[in-house]
Amino acid sequence: MINGQLIVACDLGTTAFRALVSETTEKGGLRVLGSGEIPSGGFLDGDFVDLRTGSRALARLVRMVEAAAEVDISAFYHNISGSHLRSIWARGQVQIGPGPRAIESGDLDAVLDRARSLAVPFDSWILALNPVEYSVDRVGGIVDPRGRIGSQLEVRAHLITGSRSVVRNVEEAIRVAGYEVAGRAVDILASASALLTPADQEEGVLLLDVGGRTTQWAMFRDGHIVGNGLVPWGGCHLTSDLAHGLRINLERAERIKRERGIVLRSLVEEASPDVLFEEERPEETPGLVAAILEPRLEEIYVLVKQAVGDARDLAALGGGVVLTGGGSRCLGADGLCEEVFGLPVSRRDLPPELEGSDQLAGGQWSTAVGLSLWALRAAGSARPALAPPEETQHLWRRLRGWLDRPRNGGERPLSGRRENMLDAGRRL
Predict the structure, then answer these.
(1) In this structure, are residues 157 and 131 in contact, taking their beta carbons and an 8 Å threshold?
(2) For residues 98 and 96, what is the distance between their CA atoms, to the nearest angstrom?
(3) pTM: predicted TM-score of the whole model, two decimal places
(4) pLDDT by residue (tens digit) across 145-166?
(5) Three-state SS sequence of 305-318
(6) Which of 118, 212, 310, 333 is most enclosed, with most CB atoms within 10 A?
């Protein structure tokens, strides 16, 4: 990766759209150049339900971040989210040859392609394929089989599928807005790229992202993803509960939640919830706010715990729970999470090595940063961990070529407007 190359990422969230422009550093990391955030428009459950409104919102967002970072943008990476995503397991098997020989990288490609050939519904795409375990001549538990002598190679892989219609519609909104799609990644896996280290994933960890209208989760063990899912409740539902309980409008309820929201009653003086039914306009107190908000967030955590399944899987997570997302920023969210899951909980918003992170206020940028890191890592990888659908494979090959080519002789321009990496690629 050439120092100074630009990456543009857009997080399409249920309550807000966020765009981030970053550049690669000499150390192989990222430096934030500019960011922008606007309320989401025409977007629900990971899909544009109003294409015109959504495309106008995207165009406005990109113009905002262009001005902030002083760049011209023609394309960006985006996330995929929503209840249409499915988590499934697949196996692939190939014969190495007529006789035993050392397994090569091409054999890994072949067995992963075989796993990817799993029959999925006609209206679905395989959006991510992550090998979890290899077997050589029926000897399992192999992390990397390259160099091992054998005649048969098998893989057990975790796949995430999504609706073709949703993905196409999202990318049509991007094109209507006047931009191209540089690449895409599943939302929760992008966040994992930003917040989880290889050691976290090896030790075992549950990533829990409480968003505006949904809560997403992904579980990792032995260095691999082993499950993911979504709960259709998030921070907006806490706001709605607060507005209903205190008989106030949503705007004021959101402000109270952000500024002095408490979701753990043991942290404050207890207040009886009976006043919610006895008084026409209950007085806002810390105890009453906690009495309203705690049940909803506890319900979200419990639903995630039930979706994960076997309690033994949770008990084996040495890294505990990593909590993120704007919906979990209330006081006591981590303590309540510990009570529900019985695991240590840590809160993370951004990777510590990100340069210029002080520009990203609000603590809700993990997906946009993760998209940028995913693009950075995938560009230098022979096979992206999150494989895009077949019709965009050619775009990946072009992007990898552009990212590997020097721009302006390999030097950053000293002045003037910077180039988006797709524009630079076209001129080379």
Answers:
(1) yes
(2) 7
(3) 0.83
(4) 999 999 999 999 999 999 999 9
(5) HHHHCCHHHHHCCC
(6) 333
